Automatic annotation (TrEMBL):
Gene3D superfamilies, sorted: Rieske [2Fe-2S] iron-sulphur domain
Pfam family, one: Rieske_4
Domain Rieske: 53-129
PROSITE patterns cross-referenced by the UniProt entry: RIESKE
Comp. bias intervals (Polar residues): 1-12, 33-44
Domain of life according to the entry: Eukaryota
Keywords: 2Fe-2S, Iron, Iron-sulfur, Metal-binding
Basic and acidic residues composition-biased segments: 23-32
The UniProt record lists the keyword Iron-sulfur: yes
Positions of the UniProt region annotated as Disordered: 1-44
InterPro entries xrefs: Rieske_2Fe-2S, Rieske_2Fe-2S_sf, Sol_Rieske_ferrdox_dom
Protein name: Rieske domain-containing protein
Amino acid sequence: MAEPSVPSTVEQSLAGLSMNDKTTTRVDEEPARTQNAEIASAGTANEQPTFVDVGIAARDLLPGRSKHVQVQDRQVAIFRTHAGALHALDHLCYHMGSPLASGDIEDIGGHACVICPWHKYVIALDTGEGFYKKIDPYAAKGSPPELCSKGVRQRVHHVRVGKGDKLEVALSISKEPLASDHYHQAFAQGMERMKQAGLSVSSGVVVAGGLPGGSRAGS
Ligand code: FES
């Protein structure tokens, strides 16, 4: 698949998306789905997400910064917004798998978002929705573009500050498939193939919560 051209600004990216996307809603039309809602709707204790210490002190994640961690076999990016809120999403972008922890955090229409470092897609940190701005060519001159949602594309996980000021992450337990699952699976399969070939399988980050199958790397 040919790689799309790289827009030079976020606004160009947002405007360009509006020409192609047909399955969108205005942001104020779609209720936000939050990670807390998943926890609240879980039934028994067995269905609750399980938090694990990811080895990072909460005080070391400053506002406007992010960290890449691995929880079991999943690559996760933890963000702290400029206002201080914590969010966790799949680390690999739903579009083409870029590392979202390298993206800037910006306020887009009142929503804290990460700007993908490769093609500048805009992803809401609290819901994982892909955002774009729709420009109406028939609107009055000077009218601001309309912020729209493509729906949830990036999987959102749970993050909290645990004992001893340590950040804890719980993977989402939702079975609903999302676009970002593709790059999680591709990355995990690539790591598994390297392991079977006897090559190093380190992703460069500490593994928290143990790998599926029982082994555990790092602390
Ligand atoms: S990889 Fe293309 S926008 Fe993220």
